Amino acid sequence: MKQNVVKSIAFAVVCMILGILIALQMKNVNSDNLTESNLAELQNRLIDVAKKNEELTERNNYLYELVQLLEDDMATGNDQIRAIIAEKERAAIFAGLREVRNYGIEIQISCNPDMKVSATILRSFVNELRGIGAQAIAINDERVVAMSEIRESGDNIVINGNPLMARNRFTIKAITNPENERYIVDYLMDMRDAIVNSIQYESYQYDIQVNVIPEMTIPALSEQSTAFKIDLLMQS
Fold it and tell me: Would you place residue 41 in the very low, low, confident or very high pLDDT band (cuts 50, 70, 90)?
């Protein structure tokens, strides 16, 4: 459609130029006597016009080819741009920079109010979830990524630089493969039993619940998070 419009405009311009030249020539013919010399001159001018018309046609065809090449390049470029954007978005999802949702597992962890939930317990569940194929994990809506820290600091557990009261309930969310639901749930329940029945954690009186969530949302990593910082990194 675009090429047809361009061709029509170019053809109209050529015809207009040719018409103007012929009209000017005819005006000269009417004002002068039709001698053999005038007829010869008119013929020569018409030949010149025809040659110019041919040159314009060739130039037009050349421009059409350029337009076609440009359109092809633009189309290819758009595909490449779309591919780059798609790959960038895929990398952002993988890095935890996008909110995601899907089927998942939820683990709720609390203990004796006089005790503090251990960061070791949280790290253990996170590591095991990664080991069984979880593709996104969050603790109390703090996205856990490769650079996330889970450590104790006084009465808090610090995740991504944000302090969370260690005496509160912690909720771990993970997006996992629903086809492996039975295996994953059984595996996590075995972990729960090992912790609850452990002499090491007997005084903590841990309460650990494992639930299947048909569709859960896991937030993106905050740009204010310490795990997001890249200002000190330089490409080699």
Answer: low
Query: How far is CA 165 from each of CA 100, 113, 155, rounded to the nearest angstrom?
Result: 26, 11, 6
Residue whose entry in the numeric block shows the structure tokens 């758009």: 78
Angle in degrees, CA 218, 220, 222, rounded to 5:
135
Q: Which amino acid is at 208?
A: I
Structure-block tokens of residue 53: 């018309």
pTM score above 0.70: no
**Cross-strand partners of 120:** none
* Whole-number Å distance between alpha carbons of 200 and 204: 9
With b for 16 or more beta-carbon neighbours within 10 A and e for fewer, the 58-69 pattern comes to eebeeeeeeeee
* Of 152, 95, 149, 103, the residue nearest 126 (C-alpha): 149
Structure tokens, 224? 């204010």
30 burial via Cβ count (<10 Å: 0-12, 13-18, 19+)? exposed
Q: How far apart are the first and last CA of the chain?
A: 48
